[in-house]
Amino acid sequence: MVEAAARKGVTIEVVTFDESTHTAAEAAHALGAELGQIVKSLVFVSGGADDLEPILCLVSGVNRVDLARLAAVCGLPDVRRATAREADELTGFTIGGIPPIGHIRRLRVIMDPDLGRYEVVWAAAGLPTAVFPVPPATLRVLADANVAPIAEVTAAPSPGGGRSVVVEPASAPGRPATGTTG
């Protein structure tokens, strides 16, 4: 993984921990970072058992992937979460340590735009106890990622009651929420 970054002219510094950083919450706690700064590397697949097309989603730690949005972004009729075995076979890494780069094969990579809210984000470095810091723009280049809205959209209760406002996940402070009322 470090070599994959070096081939693109980027030096990354891996930080290791005694405790697990397997989940986004564990990583944020260990780093003293915001949950949104943690990059979840999630593997999804499309196709049949003999011809799986892997899709790696780089998602802000506060967000969840919306399968319908991901399928639409990828132009695929059906997408599902990869099993742990499929993720390992398709990337060469186990869940909890899947990095955004350095996989055993080329993957289609989609990046959550909410990661761009931060100067630095933290991504897995190949083990459940290792991460590395990287600016989101550099991450996009390293992973050859397409940035697209793939996160679930949540409905927040309206202060007036009865009506709800659809809010894009992780709206930045001071930035108006997008969506509709109804």
In short:
The protein is an alpha/beta fold and 182 residues long. 21% of the residues lie in helices and 24% in strands.
Textual characterization of the structure:
- The chain is α/β, with parallel strands linked by helices and 182 residues long.
- It has helices spanning 2-7, 24-31, 67-74, 84-91, 136-143, and strands at residues 15-16, 38-46, 53-60, 80-81, 108-111, 121-124, 130-134, 146-147, 154-157, 164-167.
- It folds into two domains: 2-151, YbaK protein (Alpha-Beta Complex), CATH 3.90.960; 154-182, no CATH class.
- It contains five helices and ten strands, in the order αβαββαβαβββαβββ.
- A hairpin with a 6-residue loop joins strand 9 (154-157) and strand 10 (164-167).
- It starts with a helix and ends in a 15-residue tail after the last strand.
- Residues 161-167 and 170-182 have low confidence and may be disordered.
Topology, pairings included?
Layout lengths: L1 H6 L7 E2 L7 H8 L6 E9 L6 E8 L6 H8 L5 E2 L2 H8 L16 E4 L9 E4 L5 E5 L1 H8 L2 E2 L6 E4 L6 E4 L15
Parallel strand pairs: 2-6, 3-5, 5-8
Antiparallel strand pairs: 1-7, 2-3, 2-4, 6-7, 9-10
